[in-house]
Amino acid sequence: MSPPRLQLEGITKAFGQTQVLDGIDLHVREGEFVSILGPSGAGKSTLFQLLIGGIRPDRGTIRFDGTPLAAGEGRFAFMPQRDALMPWRNILDNATLGLEVQGMSRAKARGRVLPLLADFGLQGFERHYPAQLSGGMRQRAALLRTVVQDREMLLLDEPFGALDALTRTSMQRWLEAMWKRHRWTALLITHDVREAVYLSDRIYVLSARPAQVLHEIRVPLPRPRAAGFQEASAIEANLLDMLFTGQTFAGDKP
Amino acid sequence: MPKQSSFFARVWPAALAIGFLLAAWQLYVDLSGLSPTLLPSPARIAQQAWIHRQALLDNSVPTIRATLLGFSCSLTAAFLLSIVMDFSRPLRRALFPVFIISQTLPLVAIAPLVVLWFGFGLMPKIMLVALVTFFPMLVALVQGYQATEQEIALLLHAMGASRWRAFRLARLPSALPLFFAGLRISITYAVVGAIFAEYSGAARGLGIYILNAKNNFRPDLVLAAVAVSATLTLILFGMTALIQRLAMPWIRFEQAAAR
């Protein structure tokens, strides 16, 4: 088995008196889709802020390819919870943002993005402003902006949380198909059990705050995973069990 | 075109209200038989304005010049200072109270002093226009930068953007809606500021024209000059709206989506 690309060991973080993360261990291998599943407010987003260098852990180490992660190393492409598209840039220029920040000229960055528009269902909309697009299209544009940066790993922070149920399901199917083709190494934060089962190779189940890894489970299902698959339902039920049990006892911990 | 009709739909109630007020004014003057040296009727003001159109025009030019120059200076200063204040918290804390105090100065007291120090030329007018228009724009810009969406800031940080880069890519464009709101407020002060400066001492200008008309017991000409000044302000106000449309082409879609 390949060595892990990203490895977190004993990550602990508190904000003032509030303990948010309590000894998180997790890893992601090359080409693996891993989800972090936990209740709202468990500190999942704090984990991502540690990775993209906004804050530092109180204890624990973060390694990438075996070496400690330095601030501003730029290994991750990050997709925030809401799409965070700039309303004043059209879709094409929103998608090129990361490349421009990396120092690429706008013309060259556009050249990189244009051939990808069709795959992301955005062809013909490159000159539209975000306000003219539906929620699903905006989210695809945000994902395009993320993957075109060509970083080593994708960090997806509840990317479909703001969408309606139908759009979310269709986006999950679409993302699975895209992932099958590109084999991105990806870490997804979600509180949607079905989404985690549908997309992931492995799932870490976090407790309520202070967050600990309660379980690590494998999802051995073949892809594509049609929704309503019997085994998927069993795993979903199992995960929900874990989450609720974890929540009940989280408050009793000293 | 639907856009045009919606423009007229918005304008006609205001036009009707103004027309009604003018008609009531005219009727009152006609029926009460008040002397025009006390309260001239709108018709008389219009007639006298037409007769004195050359003088009004000659005196408008220096006022317009002072307004535009003062406003440009004020805009430039507000923009540069807003950037400095956005980057430096200590400076923001040090300067903000100073600018707030500058807003508490009564113009009646300051205007003659500025004329005393800087003479009857253009300089004191520019300074007074800048004084009254600077603060709304500065506040609008500083708050506009702070209105940047948190997630966009986080995203740029994750992309490795420098502070300056993030300012240009996100904070500056995020400030545009509030900036234009501040611009509209301060442009309505600009003409009044220039007239007040001229009132305190000038060779020519609407302010001095008003002063002379008042001293000659010609309220009709005072009000004619006031009408010119109001028209100037409305034109400037309309121009800011036009510039906003050009600078923020996406805003139409956001408004359409919100409807």
UniProtKB/TrEMBL annotation, chain A:
Q: Which Pfam families match?
A: ABC_tran
Does the keyword section mention Nucleotide-binding? yes
Example GO molecular function term?
ATP binding
Q: Which stretches are transmembrane? A: none
- On the tree of life, the source organism's domain of life is Bacteria
Keyword set for this entry?
Answer: ATP-binding, Nucleotide-binding, Transport
Full protein name:
ABC transporter ATP-binding protein
The record's annotation in InterPro entries points to: AAA+_ATPase, ABC_transporter-like_ATP-bd, ABC_transporter-like_CS, ABC_transporter_ATP-bind, P-loop_NTPase
UniProtKB/TrEMBL annotation, chain B:
- Membrane topology according to the record: Multi-pass membrane protein
Superkingdom of origin organism: Bacteria
InterPro entries for this protein: MetI-like, MetI-like_sf
Q: What is this protein called?
A: ABC transporter permease
Q: One of this protein's GO BP terms?
A: transmembrane transport
Query: Keyword Transport, does the record have it?
Result: yes
| Entry's transmembrane regions | 7-28, 66-87, 94-120, 126-145, 175-197, 221-243
The compartments listed are: Cell membrane
Q: Does the keyword Protein biosynthesis apply?
A: no
Query: What keywords were assigned to this record?
Result: Cell membrane, Membrane, Transmembrane, Transmembrane helix, Transport
- Please give the chief subcellular localization of this protein: membrane
Give GO cellular component annotations, separated by semicolons: plasma membrane
The ABC transmembrane type-1 domain, residue ranges: 56-243
Entry similarity comment: Belongs to the binding-protein-dependent transport system permease family.
